[in-house]
Amino acid sequence: MREWEKWEKAANTSNIFSYASNILLDYVKQGIENNIEENKSLIIPQAVLHIFSCEIGLKALLLKEDISYGKTHKLNDLFELLPEQMKENIRNLTKEKFKIEFHMDCNFDDQLSQISNMFIELRYHFEAEALKEIIVGFIVAFNSSILHFTGSYK
């Protein structure tokens, strides 16, 4: 497989997981509105899918830039490998999307740090003594910003 095909395949994979996550998010919202516990419990798989989409999207952008990323799953490590201008663009777009949706500012670096290893943590949430707070709004805004730069499913 040629390098440009890898980046496009990764971008498509990111889009697919984001799409699936958004479907689950609609069920979560319905669960909250109608107090349906089973729907509300979908927040964990929803967050796992969205965070995985972020990871694959960041890896797609790194492939496009011909930047090696190793075997990490940590979002902040992958984000830091991006070119400075790309990081700034994603940071600004995420903050803008978050502000539009929630009418408040977000601390991008703090929230990225909080979700950085959440893909691993949430997959095994049943082993944890306490469930870590899931910052869905930031995850969705960050994912949407990444997909803005990877493009739509092709």
UniProtKB/TrEMBL annotation:
<protein>
    <submittedName>
        <fullName>HEPN domain</fullName>
    </submittedName>
</protein>
<dbReference type="Pfam" id="PF05168">
    <property type="entry name" value="HEPN"/>
</dbReference>
<feature type="domain" description="HEPN">
    <location>
        <begin position="55"/>
        <end position="128"/>
    </location>
</feature>
<dbReference type="InterPro" id="IPR007842">
    <property type="entry name" value="HEPN_dom"/>
</dbReference>
